[in-house]
Each structure stands twice: as C-alpha cells, then as structure tokens.
Amino acid sequence: MLAKTVARLRAADPGPRLAQAGPLLARGFGESGERSVSRYIRREFPELLADFEELDTRERKLAYETFVTWQSTLMYRLNCVLHILDFNPLIVGDPGWNDLLAGREGWRYHPELSYYDDLPDFYPASAVNFNCTSRQMKGAVNQRVFDVPCCGAFLITDHRAQVENLFEPEREIVFYRTEDEIPALVDMYLNAPDRRESVTRAARKRILAEHTYDHRMVTLMEAMRETFA
C-alpha cells in the first residue's frame, strides 16, 4: 500500500508539523483501540489538533485520516513480514514491496493476483498462507480468514477480538498475538502437515456451516426485522 499511502498524504497536503508527525501518529493509532484518527489526535496529540483543523475541507481531513490508517497498516505488515524472511516467503502484492524490502534477502515477489480468478488456486499451492489484518479493522477479521480455508488451504493470521467468536483456537484457526510469536509458529506448522490439514478441514467445515454469505444475509435480515418491523 506504499503508493496509495503516499497518494493520500499528497491529497491531504498537511502542514509540515502534521506531515512529520505522520509515522508517530500511525504507530500509536495502530496500537490503540481507537477507531477514529481524529479522536485519537484529540485525545493523544492535542498539540496537533490546530494543525489538523487547518485542513480546511472535509476531503483533506479524510485524506489525512486515511493516510494515518494506511501508514499504520503498512508499518505493521512490514514488521510482520520481516519476521518471516528466514522462511523465504513469496510475497504477493503491489510493487511497493520492492521498495520496502529493497536490499533485503530471503524473499520472493509476485505481482498482485485476481481475487476471483487466481486466489482460489493460489492459496492451496502454499503450505502456509500468512495474514496481517489492516489496522482499520480494530477488532474484526478480514475476508482471508474465511477464503483460505474454504479453498482447502492453511492460514496463520493475527489475533482479533472477534476471532474466538467465530472459530475454536488451534483446532479451527491458528493465530499469533504478537509479531515475536510469528517465527516459531510458522516453523512449527511448516513441519506439521497433518496438523495443517486438520485445522484446514475443521475451519472449512465451520465456515460452510456458519459463515457463508447466506448465513450473514439471514442474520442481517433478522436484525433489520427486529429493528424496523
């Protein structure tokens, strides 16, 4: 997301203090439970509030909040990936990875893949699929948590507040709580094909029984009836 993050900063066109504070804000926002960048600035960096308010249109403020959120995700994902370089990972994504990991050895690059056409065949080709959730999703899991097992493939993901309401840990899902846990977890499951298969099979069974779009639509319609009927 390097190019997209830089583009949001340019669209915001903040003053020098706000621009310089971007990485610090991004790191703190990502580690906090706050879901709003503007509220986070008001609470944790009141000295920057006037600079933020100087962004004189709604579009510039939104661009800056998006920049902070995406920069937070960029920093988090980069740190996670640095913890798996010893396993020679294949990183699939936008060309920004070539800039972020320039000069580092122990990784391979593949351009972005089509969500619908390529990923269903790509996931099962990997012994371990590795996931780092966007920092804009403070408690929720992302689509990959469902997609990978449904394709018959194994996933290691980061812990989210929501995850234990959806899956049984270790039996249906494998997650890390901190980046330091990543190498040992990846190493263990790379060398445990039977355990990978067991987790994948259990996760797929749970998803098809409880977590399809049909299930979500039923829940949504029930909530709408209760709210508006």
Explain how this protein is built.
- With 229 residues, the protein is mainly alpha-helical.
- Helices cover 54% and strands 7% of the residues.
- It has eleven helices and five strands.
- The protein has helices at residues 2-12, 16-31, 37-44, 49-53, 58-82, 96-100, 119-122, 144-150, 182-190, 193-210, 213-228, and strands spanning 90-93, 108-111, 129-130, 155-158, 174-176.
- It has a three-stranded parallel β-sheet, sandwiched between helices.
- Helix 1 (2-12) runs antiparallel to helix 5 (58-82) and helix 2 packs across helix 5.
- The longest helix has 25 residues, at 58-82.
- The protein starts with a helix and ends with a helix.
N-end to C-end Cα span: 43 Å
Order of helices and strands: HHHHHEHEHEHEEHHH
Q: Give the CA-based shape.
A: globular
Low-confidence stretches: none
Radius of gyration over C-alpha positions, nearest whole angstrom:
20 Å
